[in-house]
Amino acid sequence: MGRGSKHGHERVLSLVVVAAVGEEPANRSFEQELAQLPVTDFSALDLRLWIGGHIFGALVLQLLRIRTTIRRLKVVVVNWLGSCSSENCHCDQLGSWRNEHISLPYLEVVEFEGFHGADHEVDFLKLLFRSAPMLKGMTIKQTDLMPPNKKGCQELGSIFEANASVKCIWV
């Protein structure tokens, strides 16, 4: 599921999460899975999400709640399907994550690769801005797998303007 490594003075937990289309939710929680890993005192979280169109906000929020003291977050989204096509999919049944608040008092740097501009991606970035008062930098890299959502990209520009104290880079 994951591995830990040291980069300079930080411990990095790297996880690859693959959406299993048509699968039932797992019997074990992320807390239970992470407890099995040899690295529990990580200060950086590196996520590779192979989401297949699924909404990832609730999943990442659950991971962030496990370790709220991270300083660096990297999320790489690989989406090969566009958007989730199942009406009964459990990926957004916990849609309330979009309005939640989590305290991430040490989070300073966020990298997000694979940005498309979907509503749930924009909502996830809003959640990070309102939850991380010490945020110093955010880098967003657009996906080249599909054309960007114009509305979402415009909203991201507005979010960056509203958070002028954070060094925001969009490539």
UniProtKB/TrEMBL annotation:
Positions of transmembrane segments: 47-64
Name of the protein in question: FBD domain-containing protein
All residue ranges annotated as the FBD domain in the record: 107-140
Keyword Repeat: no
Species per Swiss-Prot/TrEMBL record: Panicum virgatum
UniProt keyword terms in alphabetical order: Membrane, Transmembrane, Transmembrane helix
A Pfam family reported for this protein in Swiss-Prot or TrEMBL: FBD
Family annotation (InterPro entries): FBD (IPR006566), FBL15-like (IPR055312)
Lipid metabolism keyword on record: no
Lineage per the UniProt record: Eukaryota, Viridiplantae, Streptophyta, Embryophyta, Tracheophyta
